[in-house]
Write a structure and sequence with these properties.
By secondary structure, this protein is mainly beta. It has 3 helices and 28 strands. It has a 4-stranded antiparallel sheet.
Amino acid sequence: MNPIGTSCAVSHRSKVGPLPFLLVFAALLLPARAQIQYTIIDLGKGDVIDINNRGQVIGYNDGLGYYLFSNGIKTSFSTLDGGLLSACTPKAINDQGTIVGYTGNNAFMYSNGALTILPTLGYSAQASDVNNSGLIVGTSRPDSSSPYIGVTFTSSSITSLGLPFAAGSIRTSDSSQMLVRDSSGNSYLYNSGVLTPLGSSLVAMGIGNSGIITGERSGFMFLDPWGLPDFETHAMLYENGNLIDLGTINWGGLFAGSYSSALAINSSNQAVGFSTAMDQGSGVVVYMAILSNNGSLSGLDWMTDFSGTNFYTLTRAEGINDLGQIIGEGKTLSGETHTFLLSPLGLDLSPVPEPSTYGTIGALSLLGLILRRRWKRRQSAPSATQV
């Protein structure tokens, strides 16, 4: 599922090193280019929001607005359901292609080609996530002076969780465990009515379908290149009450002050995020998108085939699905920030049916089954000349 948006995350995004430091990256990356594991698609300038296990991406492009990327084609929200989605802000998409988010003071669901405005507790609502069982979670306000209350939705009903949470802060797993955040920024795991604090040291970012939480934790001491003590922040996983330190990328040389954060995780426990370091010579902070696979942390630059694209580095990985596809953003040779979709080498990218065609496919399959049974009965039935 998609990571929770935070002011901390926004500040990370704004510090990516400028184009003149291409040579710095090139020196770091060239030795490892041999082990290519991913192909890359340039999704353009803007933001990526979420990816499902069918490889569908929702995002935002300058000039296009919010879009759905499916089977290699971007479709603007302004053309969906007769243009009714043009004012909608998407937050999540599940494997059935159901998209949820908000429009004005209302939460919405887009499913099977139709837009549905979801109920509120009285004044306003936002839907922030939807799992593969169709559970929609979000927040709602009874009136303009009330705090946001955690809620779950169906297409025609709303259920209060009875607890105040920050607007748009709820994420859910397929097991319906929820990652929530209060107005003070503290993170909790909500499971069957029980709220478990995750501790003030963990900044939680996302939750996987297995219930593992991704995030970051500060306060790790290290020695800089001159032997002086300093502190850094590490990417972390939270599982069954235990914190797992994913560490940081070893940049080598005079790079120091490393910072890493885990933003998303899939069902194979592959986590993605970003890592940073400061060039002690120039003072420039450089960024790299990262992948944690079975506890081993690697830079995605070292595993991606950039040929045929304008990318020279990937700076941030935002999400990963169960196929191993990764969405995020990177820098181009022209100095622009573009979003991307990575796919593992050899992954079957054959077109998949759109959600609106499932009913047609099911009807045709049923018709085929009926005709086949009739044909079999005719073949086995005795003819008029048989005795």
